[in-house]
Write a structure and sequence with these properties.
The complex is a heterodimer of chains A (about 240) and B (about 500). By secondary structure, chain A is an alpha/beta fold. Chain A contains seven helices and ten strands. In chain A, a hairpin with a 2-residue loop joins strand 9 and strand 10. Chain B has about 500 residues and is an alpha/beta fold. Helix content of chain B is about 55%, strand content about 10%. Chain B contains 20 helices and 13 strands. In chain B, the strands form four sheets. In chain B, strands 7, 8, 9, 10, 11 and 12 form a six-stranded mixed β-sheet that branches. In chain B, strands 4-1-5 form a three-stranded parallel β-sheet, with helices on both faces. In chain B, helix 6 links the parallel strand 8 and strand 9. Chain B is elongated. The chains are: A alpha/beta (about 240), B alpha/beta (about 500). Chains A and B meet through helix 2 and helix 3 of A and helix 17 and helix 18 of B.
Chain lengths: ~240, ~500
Amino acid sequence: MIRISGLCKAFAGSSVLGGIDATVEEGKIVALLGASGSGKSTLLRCLNGLETFDAGTLEISGFSLRPGAHDQRTLQALRGKVGMVFQEFHLFSHLSVLDNVTLAPRIARGTERARAEAHGRELLAQVGLADRASALPRQLSGGQKQRVAIARALAQGVSVLLLDEPTSALDPELREEVREVLRKVARGAHSADGAGLTILLVTHEHELAHELADEIWTLSAGKIAGISPPGQAAR
Amino acid sequence: MRVWAVLCLYCVASCLALCLAPAVARADWASVSASGELGWGADLQGGEPYVYESPTQPGEIVGFEVEIADALSRELGVRAKFHQNDWSNLVPSLERGDFDLALNGLEDTPARRARLRLSVPYFVYGETLAVRPGSALHTLAQLSGRRIGTLNQTVAQDLLQAQRANVVLYEGQQEPYLDLSQGRVEAVLLDHVIADRYGCGQRGVQCVKDDLARGTYVIGMRKADVELATRVDAALSHLIANGELRKILERWKLWDARQDELSARAAALTPAPSPSASAVPSATSAVATPAAPAAPAAPLTMSATQLGLFFEGALFTVLISVCAFALALPLGVLLAVTRSHGGRVSRFFATAYVELFRGTPVLLQLYVLYYGLSSVVRLGPITAAILGLGLNYAAYEAEVHRGALAALPRGQAEAAASLGLSRFQVLKHVLLPQSMRIALPSLTNDFVALLKDSSLVSVITVVELTKRMTIVAVELRDWVVPGLLCAGMYFAMSFPLSRLSLWLERRYQGA
């Protein structure tokens, strides 16, 4: 569960988030739509502490964040529960696909290598890249890179997944393979055994948002302009 | 194999030397008298009382040898013209024809006599042994196997080597005595002129009363300049006979009992009829015996021992470079990380370190570390060399790594942080492994530069490859073969490194 109340954030005096109040129930998928510069990505980055904020409070996966600088240990613990996928993938170029996926479990969580790798291979199989475990990032296509990034974000057994425009940097013909993986992850979140994965998806792809989300938030000028169930939002 | 390689090198070198040999600009007395100018070479760095710049009138050159050159020129009816020349290269420069006389504390040795035309002596020096107070050392024989300091290319060096002493070579006149008082050497053997001025009477230094050997300063001339040499000998003998030389030496407080030997020694070397000629040989042999070094004629080809010493020098070069770089690399990374990720105070200190070590000459840093701080920390020469070069290069490595870290996409650090890695883990597992790859070409470049910069440590008595080359070159009276061998060895060390670096780059880029 994520609870956002009165969240304000300004960059160099100009307001980016002007008081956001919203809640996401556990296991729900929320899509954030809105024009560029409406504050979607900033909101997402506040949720895992990549950005600090000026006012309001955040509660996420049992952690609460306050305005100003965050405590590093809290952040490290929080990030073990909140995964993030970036628009530009940001795979570690010096590590193989499998090492990209297992780095955090091994280093940050102390999982032993064999276990981390077994789990990493499972995740790679889920995103359809079981055969590319030993490849280096530069040997992958954009779509494959983003699928690895999704596997990497999930590898620590997170309860929240933040997706920041996961298909925007891809050529149109490569987007479908990532969408397919996102559908799979969403089904997992919705599955009966209740993996309980909560997902926030920032996107420009309205169709995808309506297909996957339980709820659609439309952001405009740093405020939530509307919350609606899928299929009913404007356009 | 090695012998053939050296032979081939020598052939190529000799051909080169023949082709490149400069036309001799000056030749014998005819050209001197035609130009009315007698060119003489010396090194101002030799200092008081030889030849040096007047401290009260900058630009004016003074010293007892200046007055001898002037007196000599007056005798010959020409003008004296001073040529500044690095002391260790006086003889090659004379042979090149840069000037007519080498007149700068040149000692009379068989090796020099074989190479040059030497004049009658103008000064008698004694080899003075300086020890620490209470030391039992007072004879040459006792010095065998001990660490003894002296200057390069001196008779003292030959004497010490003949005794199989562990010779420590210095570039300047003050440093050996400083090291003696600090206990880095057990004794210093040098001319009494130097010992009296820079050593005896200093704190922690005591001079043995009796000279361990005696020898003379002479004027060096080219072998071919027969007539000039005859005239110089005649002029000098005249200056000795008429007391003018004595007056000059007295003015410089250099006249002492040793100088009584001058006229006998001069007469012994002059074939012209002289009243005391018959008495001379016995007198010369009596006083000169201990001074004659053990080399009857210097070898002209490189011996196996010299070749071995070359390899030893190369080994020191590698040892010092590798150890210094092993210090510079981690320290540089630490400084770079501090500058890019540290707090304000630590950032300030890291920046200050880089600017200080990058902004001052490494030679100065070596001097400060070895001599300047010797009363605080007494470092051995090798340790000081490694530390000095390592600390200096760390400043450069810091900048290389700072640049490499800054070149990484910002998203790498963010992605790693978003996975819950600590700042240290982000650096260790994500940023540094990648920046190291970016820095690799610069690192190789710096290591190759360090290999060559390591020759600077000869100022703190370490005999590495370049220093060994200069020593052997002087012994062989040839710069071409030792020079080419030295260059070849540096190349053999640096070239594989460049290849290794290229290979690593290609590997990491997966081309």
